Amino acid sequence: MPLVLAGATALRLLQFAARPPTVCFMRNQTLSCLLLLLLTLFACSDKDESAIATDPDPDRILTRGIGGDPETLDPGVAEDVHAFNILIDTYEGLVTENAAGELVPGVAERWDVSDDAKVYTFHLRDNARWSNGDPVIAADFVRAIRRLLDPDTLSPYASLLNAIDTIEGGSDRTLEIRLATPASHFLAVLALPVAFPRHESGDASISNGAYTLTSRIPGASIRVQKNQHYWNAGAVYFDSVIYLPIVDPTAEYNMFRSGELDLTHNIPDTQVAEMLRNDLAEAHIFGSLSLYYLAFDLTGPPLDNPALRQSLSMAIDRKAIVRMLGRGDQPAFSIVPPGVSGYQSASYLWADRSDEERINKARQLYKMAGYEDHSPLSITLMYDAGGIHETIALAVTAMWRDVLSIDVTIEKREWKYFLDTRELRDDWDVMRFAWVGDYNAPNTFLDIFRSGNEQNLAAYSSADFDNLMSDAARQNDAGAAAELQRSAEAVVLNDYPIAPLYFYASKHLVNTSIGGFTDNIVDRHASRFLFRKDPGNPSDLAD
Predict the structure, then answer these.
(1) pTM, 2 dp
(2) Domains of the chain in sequence order
């Protein structure tokens, strides 16, 4: 999905604006006031609490920032990362992710795949239960997915399940999903909220994950309690989790420093360089499924020339850009980020060349494309206002001028106007964009380069690429599929429809008393994997 970066200076503390008058947000008083209010609300509820823990030990309460207030907690229509952080705690799909972000059995303890890679048969756990004690059955997934595929639901992620032809429960414990076309990434999609089950009542307070929702104060906090009916409840340490929708990374940082947060959603850019220098144990800075890139307009001259596009790409010093930003990002010489499960990204052949070799080759290609200092290329680079985009646009422009002496016009537009501009190709030759992968598979990046894909900003089209991706989807063997996908990625890289600049880093502060937090490429960290260390033996889980 597209990534919008507004920058810390443009963000507001939404939770302050909406907080009830009884909630204190005064540094050290924040957590205690929130707990007092939420425990009071919880105690006054007439809801059946047999499925959740009561009288939580303070050491068994986890408080974490989630970066903003979720628009909805309905798995079928949620689309923001704030909601996802909660939904992976309150629900579980047929397939789930472990602490390292790898696919593992969820509600389905095992599954079979047909030889043609079109039919998936899932065998559900006998002890999978909803938080009210009802068994989780095949019909709950049929209900949820059919709802998602109904256009009236207006699910923003329904397209991820478009490969489904039929879905039906052979019995309460057996579910068959038949695909219209093979999709090697299908299991990864099933781990996302879009494929979570739906209870027959439709009651949002009934969930099948490690936790169940107990209270929500819009703009202030969301609280969940341990679901004692969860099939693996014995391995869940925290009895309660409180999520604070703190938008401003600096405010979140200050709350972490004052002991009011166990885990942050982000780290202020101003703090990252120091943390990297000092290698602080509480700082977790790790590569993520996010690519920042420049798209070239391939629909006409001048950038319908592959040699010219390669020249422009090679003239950019990606390592210098990453050093300038100082946020822990990684230079990008591929399309798929490193670390995707079971996949080795392709890479530009010149990625390891010296700066001198890279620049000389860029100049050579520039001349091959028909341009000289006395007859320079003239192009327009479009970017959106806010955040770091202007800094990057100015840096890239300076590199192009220094290396190739080209005439670059940079144009800044507000985000909404910027998005509308994508189709106005007379307005731009190069446009900055970013892409955040939805799941741990190379398809989440490569599919946007398929001919006719609505996210194919460069209007790239290659029969070789399309055929390799289709062949990969038909593979039942993950290794064989990955090799074909790598070949497809190499085709795109060699055609230069975009200039990848860097892969974003996920950034979190984690209290050193918290164990179980594992850096992973999908940047999802379910609360069920976390625990508070025993002060007497910090390496062990405290009982």
Answers:
(1) 0.82
(2) 1-76+209-282+510-543 (3.40.190.10), 92-207 (3.90.76.10), 288-505 (3.10.105.10)
